[in-house]
Amino acid sequence: MLIFDHSRPGRTATAQLPAAGGSLDDLPANLRRRDAPALPEVSELDVVRHYTRLSQKNFSIDTQFYPLGSCTMKYNPRACNSLAMLPQFLARHPASPDETGQGFLTSMFELQEMLKDVTGMAGVSMAPMAGAHGEFAGVAMIRAYHDARGDTARREMIVPDAAHGTNPASAVMCGYTVKEIPTDASGSIDLAALRAAVGPQTAGLMLTNPSTLGVFEKTIADIQKIVHDAGGLLYYDGANLNAILGKVRPGDMGFDVIHMNLHKTFSTPHGGGGPGAGPVGVAERLLPFMPIPLVLNENGFYRLATEADLPQSIGRMSANMGNAGVLMRAYVYARLLGREGMHRVAEYATLNANYLMARLREAGFDLAFPERRASHEFIVTLKKLKDTTGVSAMDFAKRLLDYGFHAPTTYFPMLVPECLLIEPTETESRETLDGFVEAMITIKREAETSPDLVKGAPYSLPVRRLDDVRAARELDLAYKPTA
Amino acid sequence: MPFIPHTEEDVSAMLGAIGAASIEELFDEIPPALKTGKLKDVPDGLPEMAVARLMQERASADGFWSSFIGAGVYEHHIPAAIWQITTRGEFYSAYTPYQAEASQGTLQLIYEYQTMMTRLTGLDVSNASLYDGASALAEAVLMAVRSHKTSRRVLVPKTVHPIYRRVVDTTVKNQGIELVELAYDPTTGHTVLPADPGSFAGLVIPQPNFFGVLEDVHAMTDWAHDKGALAIALVNPTTLAVLEAPGQWGSRSNQGGGADIAVGEGQPLGAPMASGGPYFGFMCCRQAFVRQMPGRIVGRTVDLDGKPGFTLTLQAREQHIRRSKATSNICTNQGLVVTAATQYMALLGPQGLAKVASVSHAGTVALAEKLAAIPGVTRAFTSPYFHEVVLKLNDNARDVLRALRAQGILGGLDISGWYPELGHAILVCVTETKTAADLDHYAQHMERILSKRREAPPCAYKN
Q1: For chain A, which domains are there?
Q2: Which ranges of the sequence are coiled-coil (chain A) (predicted)?
């Protein structure tokens, strides 16, 4: 039932309406709206009940285990939310003078400094509002750097074939062409291919490390040298930062620019698809190009930097200061964890991933890279199962939903057939991981004995498998009542 | 260990299953020379109680202010129910709804949101939201250029928020797109349409514009269409309860005219101001452009049993499928804020939203009249305005605002730096949250401050 089905002409949530109306007589008649917008006319209880019920149709971290590779679905501590939502913080207008926001700006400055420390970068700007937004900022800085030196022939960005789709899309938005390079059999970048790809046209290389294949690029020192020797810059996609937090820093690996996903590594909520936060960190030579605003500390007075402070900045990414409230949640998280907590994140995320990998291997699942350590995630390939039973990774994933587990990431990265990319995170207990292994074993047995059962899953959710083809062909993107 | 449940026994059993002697051994593929020593700028961890105390102290230091600043972000009442429901774990900690069967709550909510936005803007389709109003405008500019066969020029009036224009510039400058600034009439505050604009792909039409002035959206829409370009509406969603919907702009709106794309800042629909975010950008367009639209879109379909359900659709436009050929690199929608906005629109309904808009506007008119009656304060423009107004001062705007601040009043935004031709100018906004007493309080202090400064000017050497 849609909220519109509850609507009755003349019904209102009266307590939410201003007591009196105001005159609009001074407005030109031709600019006024002729027909009122057909928003729902419902009571407050209608709204509360309807959306509470909708919430109950969702999986979430608070209710289910989400072994979703590359997404770092760890517990979102409640304190981060309640302390970011203290009433004074919420009431502050973004264009208020810096003098009225020293509490907020102090927190932002300290977060900026902590992010510098954990990534090993010389500067951090928290302007970008999501990972892809950070990627755009990072690539734009690479371009601004080359352009500022008159090195304008560099128009090609190298991207490994296993990269997230946002990498090539961000490079294109900055006016670059994309050159893909392959991955070798052990899941590492093919160094020979990289050597052949670089040249005077190379603007840079975008790399995730550990890669989306769940393995650490052991030859990072060579990669770094090849790209830098060719005059390119090295971009770090921070999607998998959780795997190395407090263990190894992108700055120490030689990266020139990075973005972080605070909704992954710093446990801000995914919120059903956003808002995230994608701060960027830079090495010394990119400092002048950082997006604004960032927070400056002038003898204990905190203020937002403007164009006057950074005349070579790539510019502004948002009307205000990024997703400030998300940054506040990340700040609270960082203070709760502290230094030792940061070091522990990668340790226990990696312990959980390797444990789960060992248990699944023991249960007869095929690993994509059996000779490698898992980072914080790893890949199971169901190709053999598909060949013998017809049950695909997608079927398997849907059946997991019936057992109360969110599906792992499926069909990404695209180079491993019938893959499940599994990332347990550090906040899950051994019992939860064991329960997941049991479900995996059960479903594998089901696939071998009654494959149609698995192919028809899920059965226990609000809907069964949806017709995506119809959704795209017979577009129904907004409700229109049938007369 | 904060948020890590492992006991010592767990750790040793798990290492045993892995066949490793220590956790450190699990990092043996990382070259030892790269490994980090101790972090130096991250302080020791604190228990929740201590962090709570710290944050409460900082919040108290920031305090509460009587704010008359608008400029794209508006202080509206947010019903208590909204964020209580929005922060339910099932919404708050859910992932992007790629697994549709496990995300029907989020998906149906977005479908309802899309429906409400199309009704508000009078356009056919809506996406599931973008980052914020400024980035949504940038995406609309890119979309107009994609949809136009030849031109890579887009006309952007100077009456568009100056920071929005900068965000658009940052976003499109590396793609060979030319942004052409349009001047405004210094008397009326209206955008002036150039006699010979040359070929262009789109015209941005702000309503109300940054000055609060109501543009002649009908003439601007027709003009853009006559030149073979798209009309891009930049609108405040609250005002759409009472101002004409973009889909109805122009003289030919019933013949497929009207604005082609509408974008704007969703913050007024239930998002707290919170020093800048998170908010969300909305984007609606005519059906013909749906495949050029960036961002997630939810569609209604049926399941295996023929039961209605919701799923992400038209994903072939998006980066995770199309990679370098996607319509945008965007991955996110601002899901949680959209969750709040959907409830806001449902709670307010057409009557409530119209009341919020009209009370805010009437308050602005009342304050503008009170302030303009004070010697040294005049309205900058003669045209009708909505909900926000530019006032010129015959005194230094920064100093006057600072004096008001000493009384707990944030009297508006000093826009002299962006528009030096206006002299000392402030942009002032009133919403339904302000009472008549609040307006009187502001006007009394403004009068006192201006007259005091006139009678006893501050020492020139002091500054």
Answers
A1: 79-337 (3.40.640.10), 339-462 (3.90.1150.10)
A2: none
Residues of B in contact with A338 (CB under 8 A): 42-46
| Residue in the block written with tokens 């940061």 | A342
Among A307, A276, A274, which Cα is nearest to A291's? A307
pLDDT at residue A330, as a whole number? 98
pTM over 0.95: yes
Could you give the C-alpha distances from B416 to B150, B396, B397, B407, B423, in angstroms and in order?
38, 10, 8, 22, 6
Specify the pLDDT at position B460. 61
Closest CA to A244 of B233, B39, B133: B39
d(CA B138, CA B87): 30
Nearest to A421 by CA among A249, A240, A235, A181: A240
Residue linked to tokens 């059993």: B13
Residue in the structure block whose two tokens are 């998906």: B107
Averaged pLDDT in 10-residue chunks for chain A of 483 residues: 97 92 94 96 98 98 96 97 98 97 98 97 97 96 97 96 91 94 90 96 96 92 97 96 94 97 96 95 98 96 96 96 96 97 96 98 96 95 97 97 97 92 97 98 98 98 96 96 75
Determine contact: B113 vs chain A, CB below 8 A.
no
What is the ipTM metric for this complex?
A: 0.97
Report which secondary-structure segment, H or E, holds A244: none
- The CATH label, of 3.40.50.1000, 3.40.640.10, 3.20.20.140, 3.40.50.1980, for the domain at B80-342 is 3.40.640.10
Instruction: Determine the Cα–Cα distance for residues A385 and A406; give it in Å rounded to an integer.
Output: 20
Say how far apart CA A223 and CA B200 lie, in whole Å.
44
pLDDT in tens, A182-222: 998 888 899 999 999 999 999 999 999 999 899 999 999 99
- What is the SS3 assignment for A205? strand
Span(s) in chain B for CATH 3.40.640.10: 80-342
Instruction: State the pairing for strand pair A123-125/A177-181.
Output: unpaired
Residue from A198, A179, A320 nearest B272 by CA = A320
Q: Answer whether B386 touches A (CB < 8 Å).
A: yes
Helices B133-147 + B162-172 axis angle, to 10: 50
